[in-house]
Amino acid sequence: QLVESGGGLVQPGGSLRLSCATSGFTLEHYAIGWFRRAPGREREGVSSISSGTGVTYYSDSVKGRFTISRDTAKNTVYLQMNSLKPEDTAVYYCAASDRAESGQLLLFRVYDYWGQGTQVAVSS
Description:
The chain is an all-beta fold and 124 residues long. 0% of the residues lie in helices and 46% in strands. The protein contains no helices and eleven strands. The protein has strands spanning 2-5, 8-10, 16-22, 31-37, 44-49, 56-58, 66-71, 76-81, 90-97, 113-114, 118-122. Strands 2, 4, 5, 6, 9, 10 and 11 form a seven-stranded mixed β-sheet that branches. Strands 1-3-8-7 form a four-stranded antiparallel β-sheet, with no helix packed on it.
């Protein structure tokens, strides 16, 4: 099970930290990805962290602004979002995969387990 939290309304330039609480599996054995979907737009892979050593990946649109991290003791993955822009407005989902290979970690089709999503709105 994956449960997202931490979304909300924030002004441009502000920050939010999303959490993805996991249960029912060993976090280190799964890649965890963050995806987002804005109205009228395709689902987009934002960031991911690999199983095992925890290599991180970011889309070009968030690189340098977002940071993904993993706390295995708390079974939780975080997405720290800084310098938020209106175009970051979307529903954010976390997802888990035990079959994603290097180069695939931002592809939603390799993720089998999904949370319910949390809304992020960036507006003045």
